From TrEMBL:
<feature type="domain" description="Pyridine nucleotide-disulphide oxidoreductase dimerisation">
    <location>
        <begin position="343"/>
        <end position="451"/>
    </location>
</feature>
<protein>
    <recommendedName>
        <fullName>Dihydrolipoyl dehydrogenase</fullName>
        <ecNumber>1.8.1.4</ecNumber>
    </recommendedName>
</protein>
<dbReference type="Pfam" id="PF07992">
    <property type="entry name" value="Pyr_redox_2"/>
</dbReference>
<comment type="similarity">
    <text>Belongs to the class-I pyridine nucleotide-disulfide oxidoreductase family.</text>
</comment>
<dbReference type="GO" id="GO:0050660">
    <property type="term" value="F:flavin adenine dinucleotide binding"/>
</dbReference>
<dbReference type="InterPro" id="IPR012999">
    <property type="entry name" value="Pyr_OxRdtase_I_AS"/>
</dbReference>
<feature type="binding site">
    <location>
        <position position="53"/>
    </location>
    <ligand>
        <name>FAD</name>
    </ligand>
</feature>
<dbReference type="InterPro" id="IPR001100">
    <property type="entry name" value="Pyr_nuc-diS_OxRdtase"/>
</dbReference>
<keyword id="KW-0676">Redox-active center</keyword>
<dbReference type="InterPro" id="IPR006258">
    <property type="entry name" value="Lipoamide_DH"/>
</dbReference>
<feature type="binding site">
    <location>
        <position position="117"/>
    </location>
    <ligand>
        <name>FAD</name>
    </ligand>
</feature>
<feature type="binding site">
    <location>
        <begin position="317"/>
        <end position="320"/>
    </location>
    <ligand>
        <name>FAD</name>
    </ligand>
</feature>
<keyword id="KW-0285">Flavoprotein</keyword>
<feature type="binding site">
    <location>
        <begin position="184"/>
        <end position="191"/>
    </location>
    <ligand>
        <name>NAD(+)</name>
    </ligand>
</feature>
<dbReference type="GO" id="GO:0004148">
    <property type="term" value="F:dihydrolipoyl dehydrogenase (NADH) activity"/>
</dbReference>
<dbReference type="Pfam" id="PF02852">
    <property type="entry name" value="Pyr_redox_dim"/>
</dbReference>
<feature type="binding site">
    <location>
        <position position="311"/>
    </location>
    <ligand>
        <name>FAD</name>
    </ligand>
</feature>
Amino acid sequence: MSEKEFDVVVIGGGPAGYVCSLKAAQLGMRVACIEKRASLGGTCLNEGCIPSKALLHSSYAYYSAKKHFDVLGVECSDVRLNLKKMMGNKSRIVMELSQGIEFLFKKNKVTRFTGTGRISVKGDMEKKSVIIDKTETVHAKYIVIATGSEAAELPFVKCDEKNILSSRGALQLDSVPESMIIVGGGAIGLEMASIWSRLGTEVTLIEYADRVAAASDGEVSVYLLKSLIKQGIKFHLSSKITEVKKEKFISATFEKDAKRESISAEKILVAIGRKPHSADIGIELDKNPSGFIKVDKNFQTSIPGIYAIGDVIPGVMLAHKAEEEGVAVAEILAGRTGHVGWIPSVIYTHPEVASVGKTEEELKAIGIKYKASKFPFAANSRAKTTNDTEGFVKMLVDEHDTILGVHIIGPSASSLIAEAVLAMEYGASAEDIARTCHSHPDLNEAMKEAALGAFFKPLHS
């Protein structure tokens, strides 16, 4: 092969693309990855998952020092916020992780190209080309599209990232706004609301659905709303935003119960979801009405030899789902069997929310008989020792005790859900978890107790 010829060319260096590149290289293929950003990691690392989690951690530490440390016997008389330093810590983390991916590319001999890649397929279908910034061309037997997604905007207002923000702008503010309107009560909106509310911003959230975290189990959603209200965040549910005006302050008009209301704030954050970045890739592919590229069970597009993974194809838009698809495609291209199993979802508020499998509402809708078991963190000894007892573990099982879904709201939910994902991946029963020894005192005992309740009775409630 020449320096411009590869087995696989991956377009996009986010979680889907860089993981696919690494796995394909580990499986013996010659791989190139094209990324338009100067830094690898995509939206997740540069302006999404990673910086938001850094700010969520820092803002909660600040909030806890002001609100909760005293009861622990830690008296802080002069807790001050240094936003510049907080943002600097976030940026350092992002830079180090991006450099880590660069190191992994070199270690695994993945060739990196910086620029925008556009696909060209002419004549010989066995040799496809990708043109980089109209100046350089590389060739490959297989092409993997991993171009990700971008923030969706309201049709009547554009984000300027100064006063009308997407999540990108909300993670780069250089001062704490006095007030902020957030449009959207999904994971992004709720996490941004948590960050800025903790730092002193008066946050009002407008959500079109009748509950926040609408994809979550209904009982979890209700609990989360109550907790966030106690933290000082205001909500307008079942509300459709109809107008945004930029004057001295930002004003937002919304319809609720057939009435029109208006509120104003220093900033407004639009967090209504994301849309696939599937335009201008150089070729016409079969797409659905929302712009997602259609693929078959092996992630192949309508053109043989061209694959797509991550946010650019239908399915939940989660970084870990994208990574799993990246691994699966690399294995398929290497002649192996790729597999993507159960995908957990997490909202990193406090309390955290994590889930996998079916919700109660979904089971009722499809008529599956089930049993629900719930164990509160208030009865968990480790939660008691940390004064963090909000929430519960909820387990749903069928008549044969097979786990259908697990939903957690509470401390470390994002980590605890992994046990449930593994159990469901291997078709475990609640009794399997209940008869497995869990460390004590630990939060994971709440999972065991929920499992005990599903097949017999919990011990500690």
